[in-house]
Task: structure prediction
Amino acid sequence: MNILFITADQWRGECMSCVDHPVVKTPNLDALATEGVLFRNHYAQAAPCAPSRTSLHTGMYMFNHRCVSNGTPVSSRLSNWALEVRKRGFDPSLFGYTDTALDPTDLHPDDHRLWHYSEPLPGMGHYTPIRDEVSVDWVKYLEQKGYQIPARWWDLYGNRKPGLPWHQGGDAPLPLAIEAHDHETRFMVDECIEWISGQSKPWITHLSLLRPHPPFVAPEPYHALYKPGRLRAPYRHADRDQQAAQHPFLRYVLENSIHCWQGDDRQLEEAAASYYGLMTEVDDNLGRMFEFLIKVGAWNETLIIFTSDHGEQLGDHWMTGKLGFYDQSYHVPLIIKDPMNNIDGDNRQIDLFTENVDLMPTLLDWLGMEVPLQCDGRSLVPFLRGQSCTKQWRTEAHWEFDFRDIIQQRAEKSLGIPSNRCNLAVVRDEQFKYVHFAALPPLLFNIENDPGELNNLAGLSEYKDTVLEFSHKLLSWRMEHTERGLTDTLLTSSGPVVNRASI
Result:
């Protein structure tokens, strides 16, 4: 049996046609969901990329693994799913990136790997090297194809063909200068297919696609697939000042951050059209991957996982990117196809809260391996087997965001708080969402009645008990999941005794 672990970067959870998005078309992911299990309330545990991916790969909440930003090293004492599957004899591969910064205590001070956070996840065998956050092999491929390579490789993702942009009166958003058949999405899928073709025994690979991560510039024909103009109405207050007045953190973001949406509504429509186009491009290329697996007889022998590291604000609450506490940055897709089971249609969609920390335990459990004590998540394999987990499953989702600014201290200066208090944690159930700040006032939303999270109820006397209840939930969550280390081991006169506490 094989494992294909797919992530697409910055993919909002509602942006698939199988969950009834009114615009985005994802026929290949829809087909995967039809054969597998669709988790409708799945959440990432952190933002941006590196903290989120560290939770994804270690099965740990951020308050335990402590990778709080892009570039924060991940302690080498922590395991991950790649290191674990090596114990079973697998040699996992990586196509794309994991945004990993290595532990400096293991390296010489002059080691070049301390100068970036583009190293592969420890435990990976074959991998695609990354430089300046861009695939080295893809750049070499483009050079061979005759493309002009910019001094800053990242500009390959944003350079457009000449013309009149849609927001200035053009017919469609301008396409990427690179053709779709040469785009990195197709290149990575081709590289992964080629690697799988060369395997003679069971394999595990992680296909980590960058898109639809910004810049939102899609190649032809995807640039014109979705026509801008009333594609979506953003969730937000009438103006930035009203949005900023909701909380000091929001005022800081909207007045001092690159995450404040700077364009007008036409530019937002243009960005959304390109964002959706990049999604369909990913879906088309995953369709090629799925067709390949069927052709070589591996489709019914491969566990397939599709998810994302985090979402995207896309102008909601006057923000862009991934940050803060709003659902748009943390609600992500999850589809898992288990070839070992054929469950009925009633069990193919799960509405319970699941989290990215569940994926490492799921992967290891599916292989019949022991899940390390470090993991805060729980295996989703029972759902894949059609078993009812309702009574003992979690009833809330959780995530964290750390907004310290190590270099420039912008948040610290603006908010008047030290770096170690520039953080927030969220707990949300089906009705309420509570946001706790280490040094700022809390927020409470009734998301059942206010899905746009526009009305903060935390300061109202009638919700005092609700704030107290959810602050207790948050405290209990953190106490239950405090890093376990060797807490389940006791040295006795008969030697060590281990009694693993269930999560």
Notes: The mean pLDDT is 96.
